[in-house]
Amino acid sequence: HEASVYSLCPRNKDNVHSIFSTTLDGKIKLWLYKNLGSRIEYDAPGHWCTTMAYSVDGRRLFSCGASKEGESFLVEWDEGEGAIKRIYQGFQNYYFGVVQFDTMRNRFLATGNDHSIKVWDMDNVNLL
Q1: What fold, for 5-121?
Q2: Residue 88 contacts residue 124 (beta carbons within 8 Å)
Q3: b/e map of 48-59 (b: 16 or more CB within 10 Å)?
Q4: Cα separation, 127 vs 2, whole angstroms
Q5: Half-sphere CA count of 74, side-chain side, radius 13 A
Q6: Beta-bridge partners for 120
Q7: What is the pLDDT of residues 71-123, one digit of tens each?
Q8: Considering only CA atoms, which of 125, 97, 121, 99 is closest in space to residue 110?
Q9: Are the C-beta atoms of residues 98 and 111 closer than 8 Å to each other?
Q10: Average pLDDT over the chain, rounded to whole?
């Protein structure tokens, strides 16, 4: 990476161990444990701080972050294409900090700047 690493997300797919890393300049890279160098590179929405997590069953990849201007993003990735599959709606205001999130069952939790915890069903882009 050319910028500081911000977060890590381990990955184990088809018995291949790897890790996603995100940086302060909004780059997302996938690294294999056994090889030097990254295998895949994505640009995070907002091109700034982003964290990533898999659904509990390990089949779906999500990221949550903010732009330098404070706009928040929650997205699901199409891992094979390196493209955004869906964008979740519901952050009302801009956010100046880092958005925290976690996955549980088929729900997606995130906190924003309005001092609340927001919940989405992973299959619906609108808030519950």
Answers
A1: Methylamine Dehydrogenase; Chain H (2.130.10)
A2: no
A3: bbbbbbbbeeee
A4: 36
A5: 30
A6: 108, 127
A7: 888 899 998 788 999 998 877 665 555 556 677 778 877 776 667 778 888 88
A8: 99
A9: no
A10: 83
The owner of tokens 């996938």 is: 30
pTM > 0.85: yes or no: no
Over residues 28-38, the pLDDT tens digits come to 999 998 877 78
Polymer length in residues for the chain? 128
Q: Is 37 exposed, middle or buried (0-12, 13-18, 19+ CB in 10 A)?
A: exposed
Name residues whose C-beta falls within 8 Å of residue 70's C-beta, 6 or more positions apart in sequence: 94, 95, 96, 113
Q: Where are the domains of the chain?
A: 5-121
Q: Please check whether residue 48 is in contact with residue 68, taking contact to mean a CB–CB distance below 8 angstroms.
A: yes
User: Is-contact 7 52, C-beta < 8 A?
Assistant: yes
d(CA 38, CA 94): 32
- Single-letter amino acid, residue 112: G
Mean pLDDT for the stretch of residues 58-70 = 85
